[in-house]
Amino acid sequence: MSGWTLRLRRPPPLRLDLRGITPLALAARSVSDVERRPVGHGNRLLPLAEFFSVSARDDDTLVFEGDLARCDRLGWQMDGGRLVVDGAAGDYTGACMTAGEITVSGDSGALAACEMAGGSLTVAGSVGDFAASILPGSLDGMRGGQLVVRGRAGARLGDRMRRGTVVVYGDVGDFVASRLVAGTIAIGGRPGTHGGYAMRRGSVVFAGSAPQPLPTFVPAIADVPVFWQLLARDLARHGGPFDKLHMRRIERHLGDLGADGRGEWVVAR
Question: Is the pTM of this model over 0.85?
Answer without folding.
Answer: yes
